[in-house]
Design brief:
Structural class of chain B: mainly beta
Radius of gyration of chain B: 27 Å
Helix content of chain B: under 10%
Helix content of chain A: 10-25%
Number of helices of chain B: 1
Strand order of the largest sheet of chain A: 2-10-6-5-11-4
Strand content of chain B: over 45%
Radius of gyration of chain A: 23 Å
Number of strands of chain A: 11
Oligomer: heterodimer
Distance between the termini of chain A: 67 Å
Shape of chain B: globular
Strand content of chain A: 25-35%
CATH architecture of chain A: Sandwich
Structural class of chain A: alpha+beta
CATH topology of the largest domain in chain B: Immunoglobulin-like
Number of helices of chain A: 2
CATH topology of chain A: Immunoglobulin-like
């Protein structure tokens, strides 16, 4: 009697699998809508994502702090799009970080080897990049493509902050801007 | 026959397992969207003298609002002597005759897209009178960042904390076409650079038409018997003059020297671009001898 009212475990699994299939179909349909409003044959949209901000943590007056592009605290941008398509990348990097009130600023710098680009699905900066390592963030390599199999490319960025001995305590901000464009359209 | 020993699953365990699967499903669905940026489609916008308006869809697949701004710059693929391609965006002092910077407008230009929301941005062209036949270009720069950002506070009065805003920009090409349109490409020169295990093929293209030539650039490394050693291709977009490089690996095998490289360019077969937006032109092919 009681067993008739309850759904058997096998049925529960089947319902779950069916729900998952609807979820996948829904996701695919959503991608169709995103890809193009009127036509079927359009290049996969280029999406740039700031996966992680370059994080220096807590800093002390007079003590410079560096974060390598291979460190877990490195900044990460990911680009997804048409597999194998050529892209152009351009980074705009700050020279200073400022307090919210603007009454003090702190030097931030980037060396000529502070960037790495990985054309696989890897978004872990600590894993050696398959693509370009020790790159100059002010002059990113040409010939970068969206990963052929992963349809993704990741950019890892390191940097250094140099607080002065009398640096005002508080929170400092700055902008890092990555511009991406397809170069084959 | 041996009887398999199975651990009996109690009713309570069934429910826990069921709950765990549901949790896993919801978690997988949400995690896939946590870090997504703003999705911009299509990747090329085409307007013309009959239809001076267009649209672009922006979608925020993440679970946080995104602040988006739209601006315009001029930037076409440019190359150095080695065929390395870059796009430099310029905002001021544009003297290029094919720039449409200044007469393409976008509405709206600043917006906040809610989590999992989308927004249409419309474009209108107001070209100057007496515009010559051809294609005019501008880059639509879509800049996005988190709509709500927080600056970390120092735990100690003497400490310094930092927050770097990671801003993402996608530069989409917008083409305005008017009058009779001609796509024509020529090969102005070529160079082969032989390395230890590869050959770099650098071809200097000249645009002889009045529109951008969009196509495919394919190279095949052949042996003396025309047996294919390797091949590679790239997507090509020639707005003015452009050098492009294709690298071909020299694979080991039973190949007869001397080698040659067959170069071909076509603007057919670009199935990533709608056919009605393609301006079809000439195909090119040439054979380059490899002097080792």
């Amino acid at each position: 009697m009681d067993s008739k009212r309850k759904m058997p475990f096998v049925w529960k699994i089947l319902v779950l699998l069916l729900s998952m299939s609807f979820l996948i179909v829904g996701s695919v349909a959503a991608q169709d809508v995103a890809v193009g409003q009127a036509t079927a044959t359009v290049q996969t949209p280029l999406t740039v994502t700031a996966t992680a901000a370059l994080a220096f943590g807590t800093i002390f007056q007079g003590v410079p702090l560096s974060v390598a592009e291979t460190n877990t605290a490195a900044g990460i941008f990911t680009m997804t799009g048409q597999a194998g398509a050529g892209i152009s990348l351009f980074l705009q990097l700050p020279e200073y970080m400022s307090t919210a009130s603007g009454d003090d600023r702190m030097v931030i710098s980037f060396s000529t080897t502070d960037c790495a680009i990985d054309t696989t699905s890897n978004v872990d900066p600590t894993v050696a990049a398959t693509g370009w390592t020790d790159q100059n963030p002010f002059s990113l390599p040409s010939g970068v493509i969206i990963g052929g199999t992963s349809t993704q490319t990741a950019l890892f960025l390191g940097g250094q902050v140099r607080p002065s001995v009398d640096q005002t305590a508080g929170a400092y901000t700055a902008d890092i801007i990555l511009t991406v464009a397809y170069n084959g359209t | 026959m041996k009887k398999k020993n199975r651990i009996p699953i109690s009713e309570k365990s069934h429910n826990s397992l069921w709950g765990f699967f549901v949790f896993l499903l919801m978690f997988a669905a949400s995690v896939s969207q946590v870090t997504a940026g703003v999705l911009v489609a299509p990747s090329v916008i085409v307007l013309n003298d009959r239809s001076k308006t267009g649209r672009m869809n922006l979608q925020n697949p993440s679970n946080s609002p995104k602040e988006v701004s739209i601006s315009f710059s001029y930037g076409i693929p440019e190359s150095d002597s080695l065929g390395n391609v870059s796009i430099f965006l310029r905002d001021t002092a544009i003297t290029y005759p094919n720039s449409s910077l200044g007469w393409i407008k976008a509405f709206p230009r600043k917006l906040i897209i809610p989590p999992n929301g989308s927004q249409v941005v419309r474009f209108i062209a107001r070209p100057p009178k007496g515009l010559e036949d051809g294609e005019y270009w501008v880059r639509v720069v879509v800049e996005s960042q988190e709509g709500i950002t927080s600056i970390p506070t120092a735990t100690d009065e003497e400490q310094i904390t930092t927050k770097l805003n990671m801003i993402m920009r996608t530069a989409i090409m917008l083409k305005y076409r008017t009058g009779e349109l001609i796509a024509a490409l020529e090969i102005k020169g070529s160079e082969l650079i032989v390395k230890d295990e590869s050959v770099d093929v650098i071809v200097d293209f000249g645009n002889k038409g009045n529109v951008s030539y969009v196509g495919l650039f394919e190279c095949r490394l052949l042996d003396a018997d025309n047996k294919e050693i390797s091949k590679n291709h790239i997507q090509l977009a020639v707005y003015r003059d452009l050098k492009r490089k294709v690298s071909l690996p020299i694979k080991a095998g039973n190949f007869k020297r001397p080698y040659s490289v067959a170069v071909s360019v076509t603007n057919k077969g670009r199935n990533d671009i709608p056919t009605n937006e393609m301006i079809f032109g000439n195909d090119l092919s040439t054979l380059l001898s490899l002097n080792e």
